[in-house]
Specification:
Elements: H1 3-11, H2 35-42, H3 48-60, H4 75-80, H5 86-98, H6 104-116, H7 124-130, H8 134-150, H9 155-164, H10 172-182, H11 197-203, H12 207-216, H13 231-238, H14 241-250, H15 265-271, H16 276-283
Length: 309
């Protein structure tokens, strides 16, 4: 890539691209990073000019939205989501829905494809979760829910839902309640890594969301991801004690479940981020005392760890 254009992309200077005499998707680095890859990677703080740059570049060259580098990363899937650039993520999704498509159906299909793009295994949602970018996670989950709703609701109702979410803050608990009314088994729908809604609730310490999901279907607490982890394991590992208490109170027998290493919830509590207070959530319940001497698949009980009281 021309060094002047590279720096312009990094600094978000639109004027440098006004008179480029060839398609902007030809502006690539040796690793096939495009203008938007560079911009999203370099950006430190999202401002009003952030979306203006992205929108203008996409209008000039729409194909940049799904352009991948040599790692298979798109500007949305592995860059904007990874760095927590919620405005850019939203801008890219909106572009997929509204340009150059002439109808709602085509726009939703394009958005669905964008949300599902992976390099080999990870989507934008996986990247946002891994980097703890909650605002991006909520946006992506909301968009994904609306894509799913479109296949079952009348087009007029879907259109109203799709656009109204940008007019007022999303009430996530209310959204969960409405989704559970319409889709009884939605709490058991898993992504490519086996994560269900309650896995996310446990990860981000959303106690009320976890409560709503379990009240709708207690068996959701039994669902395991690809590593064999339940929502309770995740909450224990993260030190999210209120979510742990909610899950244990509604589904105490899920404490007996182990992951692919044979770890039970006490293993996770001892080795996780919550420290003594998380371990005490389990110790105070005498019905769980059987966990103290349960061995994992390597023969280690929870208290064989270096954890010290």
């Amino acid at each position: 890539m021309d060094p002047v254009l590279y720096r312009a992309a990094a600094e978000g200077k639109l004027e440098a691209f006004e008179h480029v005499g060839y398609p902007l998707d030809c502006c690539k680095t040796l690793s096939n990073n495009t203008i938007l890859h560079i911009y999203a990677t370099t950006l430190e703080e999202e401002l009003e000019s952030t979306t203006a740059f992205v929108i203008t570049i996409l209008r000039k060259c729409p194909s940049l939205q799904c352009g991948t580098n040599t790692k298979g990363e798109t500007p949305l899937v592995h860059i904007a989501a990874r760095y927590g650039h919620v405005k850019i993520v939203n801008c890219l999704i909106e572009h997929a829905k509204n340009y150059p498509h002439q109808d709602l159906e085509s726009g939703i299909k394009a958005a669905r494809e964008l949300l599902r793009i992976t390099n080999k295994k990870d989507t934008a949602l996986h990247e946002a979760v891994r980097q703890n970018h909650l605002e991006v996670v909520i946006l992506l989950l909301t968009e994904d829910m609306l894509v799913r709703l479109h296949s079952t609701l009348p087009s007029r109702e879907t259109s109203s839902l799709w656009h109204s979410k940008f007019l007022k803050p999303v009430d996530h608990h209310r959204m969960i309640e409405e989704l559970l009314k319409k889709f009884i088994d939605i709490s058991k729908k898993a992504d490519q890594n086996g994560w269900t809604s309650i896995h996310f609730a446990a990860y981000f310490d959303h106690q009320i969301s976890a409560q709503l999901l379990l009240d709708a279907d207690r068996q959701a607490a039994h669902m395991k991801d690809s590593a064999g982890m339940t929502a309770l394991h995740i909450a224990a590992d993260r030190g999210n004690n209120k979510v742990m208490e909610t899950i244990i109170s509604r589904c105490p027998d899920c404490c007996e479940l182990v992951d692919n290493r044979g770890w039970n919830v006490l293993h996770f509590a001892i080795e996780g981020k919550g420290g003594k207070n998380t371990v005490k959530v389990i110790l105070k319940d005498l019905s769980l005392s059987n966990l103290f001497n349960e061995e994992d698949f390597d023969g280690n009980t929870p208290f064989l760890s270096p954890f010290q009281f």
